Amino acid sequence: MSLKNKNKYFMDIAINKAIEGIKKGQSPFGACIVKGKKVIACAHNIVWRKSDITAHAEINAIRHACKKLNTIDLSGCVIYSTCEPCTMCFSACHWAKISKIIFGGRITDAKKTGFSELVISNKKMKLLGESPVELESDFMRQECLEVFKLWEKGKAKKIY
């Protein structure tokens, strides 16, 4: 499997997890953590369900991965996120030593959709914080933006 196909496979998992979250009345974010060719953890936002503002997809996936691997060091792992991680989630990726973040939508897309984002890009955080985490942005961007549209459509129908 080529690297592009591998990345598409894992981003599709994150997208499907975000859609699963939407169907459960949650916000449109999903994340998948992979080590080598193996999915370690996958999660969606559960902020509203848990009344926990920190229960973002990336944080939930990191919590599950750390528990599964019995370590807080996720070196060698890649996180696939349907949207550019917020400042909290980027920091958690950095502290967990995740090697690479691959994301689709941008933090500005989340802001335009009505989320209370601090519009500080991962690129800027990486630079200012001298973080070694690698970044790949806009991967399957259109597909990830469709998740936002699906969520907005449901919100307009008041299914939540």
Please explain how this structure is put together:
48% of the residues lie in helices and 18% in strands. By secondary structure, the protein is α/β, with parallel strands linked by helices. It is built from 7 helices and 5 strands, in the order H-E-E-H-H-E-H-E-H-H-E-H. The model has no long low-confidence stretch (mean pLDDT 93). The chain is globular, with a radius of gyration of 14 Å.
What is the topology, as strand order, of the major beta sheet? 2-1-3-4-5
Q: Approximately what portion of the residues adopt beta-strand conformation?
A: 15-25%
List the uncertain runs: none
Tell me, briefly, the overall form: globular
H/I helix tally:
7
Sequence of secondary-structure elements: HEEHHEHEHHEH
What would you report as the Rg, rounded to the nearest angstrom? 14 Å
Number of strands: 5
Quaternary structure type: single chain
- Residue-averaged pLDDT: 93
- Estimate percent helicity: 40-55%
Question: Which structural class is indicated by helix and strand composition?
Answer: alpha/beta
Question: How many strands, what sense, and barrel or not for the largest sheet?
Answer: 5 strands, mixed
Distance between the termini: 39 Å
Helices and strands, with pairings:
Elements: H1 3-23, E1 30-35, E2 38-44, H2 47-50, H3 57-69, E3 77-83, H4 87-95, E4 100-105, H5 107-112, H6 122-129, E5 134-136, H7 141-156
Parallel strand pairs: 3-4, 4-5
Antiparallel strand pairs: 1-2, 1-3
Helix pairs in contact: 1-7
